[in-house]
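Fold this: DUF8156 domain-containing protein
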Amino acid sequence: MGRTNPTYRDALRAIEDRWAEFRRALRRRDQPRFDRLFEYAREHADASGLLNHQNPLVPALFSIDLEQEATLEDHEERLEALEHRLNEQHTDARVSDEETSEPPQ
């Protein structure tokens, strides 16, 4: 029988296990954030496995960066939409005030 090479998911699990004590030392509020980082890395495990990098932490960190970039982009789009709506409301309110005010004599 031939040997079986560990998968990238196996390597990622091993990294997570090595960081377990660090996770336990974190404040409770930060532990879910820590877990989320590994969720991000698992989201891209297929692509990371294809890379076959000698250090599996590098594609994990890049995967985390990708997910955080997507989150930032989403927040920026939502912020722009909110700013646009606020500007429209401000403009509408100003026009409404001008229409209802009496002209100067």
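Residues 8-99 form one domain. The helical segments are 8-18, 20-25, 31-43, 45-51, 57-100.
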